[in-house]
Specification:
Shape: globular
Strand order of the largest sheet: 2-1-5-6-7-8
Bound molecules: ribose-5-phosphate
Mean pLDDT: 96
Distance between the termini: 12 Å
Structural class: alpha/beta
Radius of gyration: 20 Å
Low-confidence stretches: none
Number of helices: 8
Oligomer: single chain
Helix content: 25-40%
Number of strands: 15
Strand content: 25-35%
Length: 286
């Protein structure tokens, strides 16, 4: 299988091929003077199975993905798998107000054409998978987060900042072999959240807050403050998708001892890799 990374996923693609022996073909991706994207595959892909790895975030990566799919299909390939490590637009998974789109459905409809198999990683809500007409599967990167934490920290308890993150906290805690619990969160606005207090035995414990996404960092910040007020020894944060908008990483470093994210989005915090989660599925697919 040939792995063709878009510009969002070079590090992850490199880690995947280094560990599996798959072959990497890095496409040329540049911009025309007017800002439009130019893509070229420098190798012959005839008779090959091909995997494109690319996020649907930020918006320009969607265009790259569409052009890569078209370029790859110009060859006489065996089949095409598209891995979307971070599926942007998945949080608008319903019409919250009249007149809005179901954004995740719109993106899925656009990218699934001519693709044989789609793999997403910790998509915001698995329910979105119902919009795919092609073979599609969502996998969790939480086992990789759990294994990393097990090897590098002495974690006492994993904390979910809200109900939605409880299944993720459970996977991480079970992988480590420690306890887990969670808070409830009320979102006031895109930038502001309010945590509901809860009786938890946190005193002198090393705690790790786990979530699928860290965007503005508001959720983690408020949870970390609560845990410190409750007497936690140390607070760490871990997530699959580290968007870290508006200097979130710097803000979080003031309260969290460290912040770990995976390489679905490549930042200075991407210490954990999901290459194994992808390999486990792709190499056992046939
Ligand atoms: C929301 O339900 C997600 O799971 C995350 O909790 C959310 O996206 C985090 O956003 P922020 O970092 O802006 O609080």
């Amino acid at each position: 299988m040939i792995v063709v990374p878009g510009t969002s996923s070079k590090l992850l693609a490199e880690r995947l091929v280094e560990n599996t022996g798959l072959r990497l073909v890095v496409p040329e991706i540049v911009r025309f003077p007017d800002g439009e994207c130019y893509v070229r595959i420098p190798d012959n892909l005839d008779d090959e199975e091909v995997m494109i790895i690319q996020n649907t975030y930020p918006d320009e990566k969607i265009i790259e993905l569409l052009l890569l799919q078209d370029a790859v299909r110009e060859f006489n390939i065996e089949n095409l798998t598209v891995v979307i490590p971070y599926f942007g637009y998945a949080r608008q998974d319903k019409k919250f107000n009249v007149g809005e789109p179901v954004s995740v459905r719109a993106i899925i409809k656009g990218i699934q054409r001519n693709v044989d198999y789609i793999l997403t990683i910790d998509i915001h809500d698995e329910d979105a998978m119902k919009w795919f007409d092609t073979h599609a599967m969502n996998i969790s990167g939480m086992t990789s987060i759990g294994n990393f934490l097990k090897e590098n920290l002495d974690v006492d308890i994993v904390i979910a900042p809200d109900d939605g993150a409880l299944p993720e906290a459970r996977i991480v805690a079970n992988t480590i072999g420690c306890e887990y619990d969670g808070f409830e969160k009320k979102r006031i606005s895109a930038m502001e959240v309010q945590m509901e207090t809860k009786e938890l035995d946190i005193k002198n414990k090393t705690t790790v807050i786990v979530d699928d996404i860290i965007s503005t960092g508001g959720t983690i910040l408020e949870t970390a403050k609560l845990l410190m007020d409750m007497g936690a020894k140390d607070v760490y944060a871990a997530c699959t998708h580290g968007l870290f908008v508006n200097n979130a990483l710097d803000k979080l470093k003031k309260i969290c001892k460290n912040i770990f994210s995976t390489d679905t989005i490549e930042t200075s915090a991407s210490t954990i890799s999901v290459w194994k989660n992808i390999a486990d599925v792709i190499l056992n697919k046939n």
